[in-house]
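worker-03 picked up job from queue 'complexes'. Input manifest follows; four sequence lines, order preserved.
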Amino acid sequence: MPTHSEENYLKAIWKLHEAGIANVSTNSIAAEVKTRAASVTDMLKKLADKKLIQYQKYQGVKLTAEGRRVALSIVRKHRLWEVFLVEKLDYRWDEVHEIAEQLEHIFSENLTDRLDKFLDFPKFDPHGDPIPDKTGKLTDAASVSLSLVKAGQAVVMTGVSEHSAIFLRYLDEHGIGLGSAITIEQVIEFDQSLKIKVNNKAAITISQNAAKNILVKLSKVLQSEKKK
Amino acid sequence: MPTHSEENYLKAIWKLHEAGIANVSTNSIAAEVKTRAASVTDMLKKLADKKLIQYQKYQGVKLTAEGRRVALSIVRKHRLWEVFLVEKLDYRWDEVHEIAEQLEHIFSENLTDRLDKFLDFPKFDPHGDPIPDKTGKLTDAASVSLSLVKAGQAVVMTGVSEHSAIFLRYLDEHGIGLGSAITIEQVIEFDQSLKIKVNNKAAITISQNAAKNILVKLSKVLQSEKKK
DNA sequence: AATATTTTTTAGGCATATCTAAAATCTATT
DNA sequence: AATAGATTTTAGATATGCCTAAAAAATATT
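worker-03 finished. Artifact:
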């Protein structure tokens, strides 16, 4: 049974890998788990001993099938608890991360399954991230960054790629949330900021930096998939 | 902030104290937390340094006010989560202990309060044990009105449900106080008044009205039933 | 290709929490 | 009051997980 710490490292490696890095570096892991590179090296040796990662000195790491399984079970729990916190305990989407970081380590597969059922088998967490199923499969959001969408296009918001509370509150303040219908009125040439309409209200302007971190879907297909 | 382990020790000491031991012994703690006496001694030193217990070598331990506060917050969380597991996730009352042992360490006072509200402020956990409120107060589970006890039963007085000076003086005059051992000799059919012995002195008679306002716990039977 | 810079690893510590074995202390009995 | 037995504490290890500082290796720059 992996320790909390081991689980955190596996999750971090999974996240980084998910972000597109094939061989995850020691430093990037250190940044992700908020520790020092030396501590990461220590842990990598242990995880390699336990066959949860493939690791060769100076060459970065990859999850093994078993390591990936563990990582996904943590991600599954994290995201399910986030749904619980928001839907049942009325937390806002920018408040749930720290608590879910603790809850994700609660061990009982049966508990996870019952929670899943209690929440009516949600497919996405409050930030639009997909929740792995029991077997580790995850529905691909197939979303694209709002910053890549052309003027005139109508899209639906499906998620965020930046999860900080500050950013989430920024979105709240601008009336932007999961499922929001967004129309791009204009892409300002000078700084690539966007003039957009959210749910057909008065147009607002958001920076390119903000747009980069907003994930959207071009069609309206998502509406049926999304169960709130 | 106490560690998980410190919290477990404080909870164990609280439990043992609750069971009637004034100065809790090292061995009894070792049995409760399932570890060795030497490990307990180590931890007792640490807890004493942190002023969570009063500890003198070879003399047993007592919780300080702060230690009790911590212990009760753990007990509160444990029992609230047990209610959640049984009422929301359909667990049976004999299945919830291990999972609640993990959940009780989740830290967020706000989460605890929201959970409490979500569960509609339960007073007892699925085993009938009282749930401490935010301030650490707990309703005594075992307490029932003396007027509901059958003839022949031996009980111990635990409280009153009527706080007037007149009533309290009445109790004083009859030698009835917290901790008094009361035996019901006879329930008089005509007016439901009770013939009782207090601390094995000569039998006295009290009215049904008085009996109604005296809270007692059944001294033997209930204790064993409680830990099913 | 040689050197400078960055990244990663090693070496050596520290704190937590546990253990066994032995010593110290308390308690109960004769 | 002396001693046998039980309890508790100390001493000395072990494992986890973190740290800093220095060495080693990889990468970038000239």
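worker-03 released lock.
Chain A touches chain B at residues 85, 88-91, 98-99, 102-103, 106-108, 111, 114-115, 118 (CB under 8 Å).
Residues 3, 5, 35-36, 38-39, 42-43, 46, 57-58 of chain A lie near DNA strand D (CB under 10 Å from a C1').
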